[in-house]
Amino acid sequence: MTGGWRALLRLFAVQGTWNYERMLGVGMGYAAEPLLEDLKSVDPVRHSEAVVRSTDFFNCNPNLAGLALGATVRAEYEAVPGEQIERLRRALCSPLGALGDELFWAGLVPVLVGAALVAAVCGAGWWAIAGLLLGYNALRLGTAIWALRTGFDAGMGVGAAIGGSWVPRAIERIGPVAGFVIGVAVPVVAGWYLRGFGWAGAVGALAVAAVGAAVTRWYGTALTTVRFALLAIALLLFFRWVGL
Amino acid sequence: MSELPLHAAALLVFWGALVGLDLVSVPQAMLSRPLVAGTITGWLVGDLEAGLRVGVLLELFALDVLPIGAVRYPDYGPATVAAAALAAGAPWELGLGLSVTLGLLLAVLGGWTLQLVRRSNARAIQQHAAALAAGESRAIRRLQYGALLRDASRGAGLTLLGLALAWGVARYVHLDRRTAVGLTLVVIGAGISAAAGGAVRSAGRGARLRWMLAGVAVGILLVVLR
Q1: CB–CB of A199/A183 below 8 Å?
Q2: Of B181, B188, B203, which has the smallest distance from its Cβ to A179's Cβ?
Q3: With an 8 Å Cβ cutoff, is B50 touching chain A?
Q4: B112 shares contact with chain A (CB less than 8 Å)
Q5: What average pLDDT does range A58-63 have in this prediction?
Q6: Mean pLDDT over each residue of chain B, to the nearest integer
Q7: SS3 (DSSP) at B210
Q8: pLDDT, tens digit, for every residue of A177-189?
């Protein structure tokens, strides 16, 4: 099979055609195209069917999409019946979504962004930004390569391969680290901003923070943090306008 | 806001398009994080400190976002570019409130435009349904590149609008010192509440919560010691 590196590069644009009908579907088809090229000369009919299947509905975390891509392409080359491949794709959506979201959005991103925030406000400047970009992208590239290879090696047995991999263990460990790093970052960043305003200013800002945390928790999705911020800004401007 | 020559504004629009693309479409390399987008914008407009201040504060809001599944969320990338451009050249204690207010409004608008692009992608796919059903690879590529172009245009358009609004705000909105400082304190407070609220929600009630509380204690200690 050829086209592995091209498929890997295309995986970084797997959400390019994200929409509410097929979600990642067309993006997966775009990434699958180089991998399916060899099938064209061997079995053109099967190739055509495989291309159609590759663009069907699919959704998961983009960083683990390579697992599904590799597994389904392998299954296409092994002439696994089309219905089984479609079932595999559907079955992979939820676990790859949940694992990837836990690993990246709720784990790795808060860890690296929190660390970069602390470093930036402590004077690291460009090093903080470079560390965030290099650290995240190195880990992401490594994960993408691993995912595509593992998916292709495992084929229809990709579920067991994921279960026995490092991913579930990493998720267990990264959650507490993310909590700790963000826990450190929030007071450090708050101190960085409020140092110049004296006690009255700091108490005022922290009062806004406390009210915001309470009401956004109380009202849930009806009052998001951005809506609260805009409401607080509008109230301040109104009070200043009436002379308070 | 510092005076922006035409080539600098064009550079910011290009940067805004990249940042807009990075959020979802390609390459999701963290360029769209406000911390990165703001700092680089600050450097581009010649005021790194302003870019960093705006970027860090909008990052606190962005930490509250979990981009899971089909959830709708604000797009802080191009918003940060425009906000950092507005903040440049002014003392941050006075300019941060107004800049971040503009950034938050643009972020909400950006989230809405993201829905427009997604619906537009769906329409394009429907138009090419027959070609997709026939397994035409060329149709897949055309859809992919068309969607990327739409998203890049969205980022560029948002940044251009943001810069125009920033120019208008800098020219016509003049807050007295007390209001400007009050606005800065309100947005800082709201940012802290966003990051803290997001962290508590993510922490749940298990080990992560305990580690988060330990982190808060360490963070407070660091603030006191500095």
Answers
A1: no
A2: B203
A3: no
A4: no
A5: 96
A6: 95
A7: helix
A8: 999 999 999 999 9
